[in-house]
Amino acid sequence: MDNLAIARILREIADLLEIKNDNPFKIRAYRNGADIAANHPHQLASLESTELRDIPGIGKDLAARIREIAETGDATYHRELIAEFPPTILDLLHLQGVGPKTVATLYRELDVRTLDDLQRAATDGRIRALRGMGAKKEALILKALEERKRHAGRHLLSDAHHSAAAIVTFLHDRAPDATIEPVGSLRRGCETCGDLDVLASGALPSLMDDFVGYQLVERILARGDTKSSVLIRGGFQADLRLVTPECRGAAMQYFTGSKAHNIALRDRAIGLGFKLNEYGLFTTADDRCVAGEHEQDVYKALGLDWIPPELREARGEIEAAAANRLPRLVDLADLRGDLHMHSTATDGRDDVRTMVEAAREAGLEYIAITDHTKSLAMANGLDERRALEHAASIRAIDAEAGGVRVLAGVECDIKPDGALDLADDCLGALDLVVASVHSAFNQDHQQMTDRLLRALANPNVDVLGHPTGRLILKRDPYPFDIDAIVDAAAQLGVALEINCQVDRLDLNDIHARLARDRGVRLMISSDAHSRHGLGVLRWGATVARRAWLEPQHVLNTLSFEEFRAALRRNRR
Ligand code: DGT
Ligand code: CA
Ligand code: CA
Ligand code: ZN
Question: Fewer CB in a 10 Å sphere around the end CB: N or C, the chain?
C-alpha cells in the first residue's frame, strides 16, 4: 500500500462520514490524515503504530486504521461505511464540484444513487427545486456529468505510474527472476493513461494466480494463461501478459505501442519483406525469426535506431530513426535548476531555507523562489513592499557560502487586462519573473490572446507560467491563439514553462514541440509548494522528451551563470 492509496481510503471515509452528517471533528481528523498520508515523505505502511502516532495529526484511531490498511489493503470501518450506502454513491462524490454535502442532499431528498439518476434529476429540473441548490448548481452538475463522460476511464500519468509500480513490485517479489515491466501508454509517458499494461517474461504460469489475487484487485475481468485483466482499486484496469523470453523484445515493442507507431512500423516491415507481430520479426519468405528477444534488434533489423518510447506516436520518429537523426532527448538528470516554487511567504508549506535544502538533496544547483503576488489574496500574495523584503531575505540566504544558488523571483499574476500585478520598478529589481494567469479564465479567445500578448510585451517577464491554464481531466485550457503566443515568445526571448504539477503538465508535449520548432526556449519547473514537491520534475522531463526536446532547448539545463545570462531581462 503506498501513501496515495492509504490517503484515498482515509479521504473516502471522511466523505462518507460527511454524507452521513457525522461528527465534524471526526470528519476533519480523517481528511487531515489523508493529507498527511498523501504528502508524507516515507511509506506509512512501513511504520509501526507508535511511529505513526509520533506524526503530528495522527492519533490512536487513525494510526490503527493506517496499520489495518497497510496490512489488509482496506479498513473494516471503510467497508462498513460503504455498506451503508448504494455502492455507486462514490461515483457521485468523484464528480468535479460535487461535494459530500450535495451528495447527501441529493440522496436523501431525491433518492439519487447513480450517475444516471443524477443526470435524470438534473435534466428534469428537480435539482433546482431543492433548497440550497438552484439553477446554477444544476448547470454545474450537468457540466460535471458531461466532463466525466469525456474523461471516463482515464487517469493522470503519475497515478498510473504509482499504481503500476505497486503491481510490478508485488509481482516481482513473487517472481524475482522474471522481467516485469510496464508497457503501453505508461511506458510512452502519456499525460493520461487508460488501462495499465504490464508485461512479464520468464515467469511461471502461476504468476497469473498471484496477479488476480493481488490485494487491491476489486474484480477479475478475464483470467487466462497468457493474459489476464483485473479492475483494481482507484478505478484502474490492469492487464498482465506473460510471454516467453525469446519473444520479450517483440512483445515490449508491440505492447508499448502506440497503435499508430506500430502500424507504421509494420508497414515498413512488410516493405522490407518481413512480418512483424508480438512474437517477433519474421521473414515473409520462409517464416524465419530474425529478431524477438531484444527490442533493439527489432528496430535494427528494420534499419532503424532504437526509438525511445516517448517518441513512439507516429510523429516523424520512424523517418528520423531511419536517417540516424533521432534527437538526444533531455533527461531528468540534465536539469540543474528549478525556477518556480513557493515558500511560506505565500502558499508554500516550507520556508526558503528548507526549500534550498530540499533542492540540494534533489541534486539541483540553483533555484528561484517565486511566490504569488497580491491579486491572489487567498494565497496571501505579495505586494511590492513585501516582494522586495522577501527578495532581500532570499538574497541573504543565497549569500550563505557554498550552497545552492537562489534567485529572488515572483510568480506575478497577469491581471484580466494583461497588466502585471506588481509595478515595473519592483519587478525590475528582482532576478526572475514568472508571469501566470490565475483568474478570469472565461474570457473569449481574442481577449485572452490580447491579455497574454500584453503580458509578454512587458520586458520584466522572463517566463510564462503554465501557459494554457488547463488542469488535466478537470479543466480545459482557456481559449487563446497559441501560435501567436509562441511567436511572440520567440521574438521577445520569453521562455515558456513546462509546469510539472501532475495535473497541469502545461505546456503539453504538442505545444512544447511547437515552441521548440519556433525557436522558443522552455523551462521545466516544479511549481513546488513544499519540500516534498520537487519530485514532480520527472513528469515535466517526460513531457519534454515527448516534445522532442534536447538539453539545448531547455534553459534550466544550463549552468547557473549561463542560465542567468540567457534570461530575457539579462539579454538586452
Ligand atoms: P491507453 O491504454 O488508452 O492509455 O493507451 P495504450 O497505448 O496503452 O493502448 P492499449 O492499452 O489499448 O494497448 C497497448 C498497446 O498494445 C498499444 O499501445 C499498441 C498495442 N495494440 C493494441 N491494440 C492494437 C492493434 O489493434 N494494433 C496494433 N498494431 N497494436 C495494438
Ligand atoms: Ca494501456
Ligand atoms: Ca491494455
Ligand atoms: Zn501558478
Answer: C
